TrEMBL record:
Pathway: Amino-acid biosynthesis; L-threonine biosynthesis; L-threonine from L-aspartate: step 1/5; Amino-acid biosynthesis; L-lysine biosynthesis via DAP pathway; (S)-tetrahydrodipicolinate from L-aspartate: step 1/4; Amino-acid biosynthesis; L-methionine biosynthesis via de novo pathway; L-homoserine from L-aspartate: step 1/3. Substrate binds at residues 42, 120. This is Aspartokinase. SUPFAM superfamilies: ACT-like, Carbamate kinase-like. One of its GO terms (molecular function) is aspartate kinase activity. ATP binds at residues 5-8, 219-220, 230. PROSITE patterns: ASPARTOKINASE (PS00324). It comes from the Bacteria. One of its GO terms (biological process) is threonine biosynthetic process. Keywords: Amino-acid biosynthesis, ATP-binding, Kinase, Nucleotide-binding, Transferase. Belongs to the aspartokinase family.
Length: 445
């Protein structure tokens, strides 16, 4: 069985849902289809949670009206059968009323999750009906009934597998099982959610749970490109990536893939295909364990990075200094991304500054610490990247852009540079020209 995931853009309009339907109906294989909310809807729901926090009743009502209208319009344009249309209007109204009721409750993590994951429910209720009208044998599965992941970092795949199996067994046999991305249940079995963009991760968790033959992620571009196409011209899709390469690129900002996507499928060696809903015949990108080409593959960038320099109060680094530093970050559950050391100082980066004040307070007791915000990590990825003849050209960047840190050696498929965020686009474009002979240098705007 395969798992197919369609992102917000793919399900964002009547026309696009028709494209998605023809992709789903291309063959008669049984499949699980995971959908995100229509593009823009999760952002709107996040705004709704802000309205609730500020008890802004006018904004809450306005927001919910707009949400209802968007989905009513979709029903009106998509669904032919009048009875089905009316049933769907009722369903959507009921969900909107539930959201209104939740908005009046006291705010909690579960309330937040219930609200921001409701876009997926609205869309799949409507889309299931449309798939039926298209002649597809479809059953709607509710992800909240089987995505008992316990921990989002280390999902309990066996638990999900068992619950999913029970849900499918309870339904009439179908060719397509349609379900929602993003929503899950936590250790306390409360409704929770994966990180933003997490429907990719839903798809691979389900893929692992059913031991799928492959997981297809359908989006609005023909695969993972060698550089960020939002900022750089002349990028190209990469035909094959190893799991390691894809994981590095996703973690370091390649937006097409949620950072945790590949982790559930690596051990099971389930391939992940990145495909374009708007050009289904394009090859796309295959992510698998197959030995691919060596050398430079792609560049990505991750924003929101804080650089921290810690200088020992003694002249030379005393034995145990690094251990003490790491223990502090560990105690405050803060992951370190990049790290470089010299004899008297250590530089590192973090992206989660929630506990930074406490970290600083503790380290200040025995070291001098400076913190600088608003950096970006530029990540250059490829198996044995250092051996690629072109790689050395990246150091030309030093003549043009102040590089705060350089890191290589943690793995042999990643070289990371730390630059000020405002120099990110310039850096991506410069490296594209230097490393891929691709684009003329364009100054950042
Ligand atoms: N390296 C990259 N390769 C391909 N797309 C990328 C890359 N970096 C950023 N993107 C952007 O990611 C977008 C797809 O984002 P995604 O969140 O997957 O969309 P959706 O979930 O709506 O399908 C593309 O349109 C593209 O602009
Ligand atoms: N709708 C959620 C989950 C998701 O994965 O969306 P998308 O596939 O459109 O990135 C979000 O916007 O975060």
């Amino acid at each position: 069985m395969k798992v197919l995931k369609f992102g917000g853009t793919s399900v964002g309009s009547v026309e696009n849902l028709k494209r998605v339907t023809s992709i789903i109906n291309r063959d008669n294989e049984t499949k699980i289809v995971v959908c995100s909310a229509m593009s823009g809807v999760t952002d709107q729901l996040v705004r709704l949670t802000e309205n609730i926090k500020f008890a802004d009743t006018v904004a809450i009502a306005k927001n919910l009206d707009a949400l209802e209208k968007k989905h009513f319009d979709l029903i009106a344009q998509l669904i032919q059968e009048e009875t089905s249309r009316n049933l769907l209007y009722d369903k959507v109204s009921r969900i909107i009323t539930q959201l209104f009721d939740i908005s009046c409750q006291s705010y909690s993590n579960e309330v937040n999750s219930l609200i921001i994951t409701s876009g997926e429910t609205l869309l799949t209720e409507i889309f299931a009906e449309f798939l039926k009208e298209s002649g597809c044998s479809v059953q709607l599965l509710y992800a909240k009934d089987f995505m008992y992941v316990e921990s989002t970092d280390q999902p309990n795949i066996n638990n999900v597998a068992q619950k999913l199996h029970e849900q499918i067994e309870d339904l009439p046999t179908a060719t397509v099982y349609l379900t929602q991305g993003f929503v899950c249940r936590n250790r306390e079995e409360n409704i929770s959610h994966l990180k933003r963009g997490g429907s990719d991760y839903t798809a691979t968790i389900i893929g692992a749970a059913i031991n799928a033959s492959e997981v297809q992620i359908w989006t609005d571009i023909d695969g993972l490109h060698n550089n960020d196409p939002r900022y750089v011209e002349n990028t190209h899709p990469i035909a094959h990536l190893t799991y390691n390469e894809a994981a590095e690129l996703a973690y370091f900002g390649a937006k097409i893939l949620h950072p945790q996507t590949v982790s559930p499928v690596v051990d099971r060696e389930i391939p992940v295909l990145l495909k374009n809903t708007f050009n289904p015949d394009a090859q796309g990108t295959v992510i698998s364990n197959a030995i691919g080409t060596m050398g430079l593959k792609a560049i990505s960038a991750k924003d929101g990075i804080t650089a921290i320099k810690i200088k020992s109060n003694r002249m030379l680094m005393a034995h145990g200094f690094l251990r003490r530093i790491f223990e502090v970050f560990d105690k405050f559950e803060t992951a370190i991304d990049m790290i470089t050391t010299s004899e008297i100082a250590i530089s590192l980066t973090i992206d989660d500054t929630k506990n930074l004040e406490e970290i600083i307070k503790e380290i200040k007791q025995y070291a001098h610490i400076t913190v600088q915000e608003d950096y970006s990590i530029i990540c250059i990825v490829g198996e044995a990247v250092i051996d690629d003849k072109k790689t050395s050209k990246l150091f030309d960047i030093l003549n043009h852009i102040p590089v705060r840190m350089i890191s290589y050696g943690g793995s042999n498929n990643n070289i990371s540079l730390l630059v000020e965020k405002e120099r990110k686009i310039e850096t991506l474009r410069f490296l594209n020209a230097k490393l891929f002979d691709a684009a003329p240098l364009i100054s950042a705007n």
